[in-house]
Specification:
Helix content: under 10%
Number of helices: 0
Radius of gyration: 17 Å
Number of strands: 3
Structural class: mainly beta
């Protein structure tokens, strides 16, 4: 039986952004989500996934 805490789930969220304030009427939107599983003992990535979020019509 594996001990608790051997694998670590890592989530990375990418969102739209601007230099300074967003233009009027615009908000940040999630555009991509990255997921990976890390084996803490071996310090290696054992799985990875990428989810691209569809853009919404303006």
């Amino acid at each position: 039986m594996e001990r608790f805490g051997r694998f670590l789930n890592v989530v990375d969220v990418e969102a739209t952004c601007w230099d300074g304030q967003p233009p009027p009427g615009q908000v940040s939107e999630i555009i991509e989500i990255g997921l990976c599983v890390v084996d803490v003992e071996s310090r290696r990535r054992v799985a990875k996934h990428r989810i691209l979020c569809p853009s919404r019509p303006v």
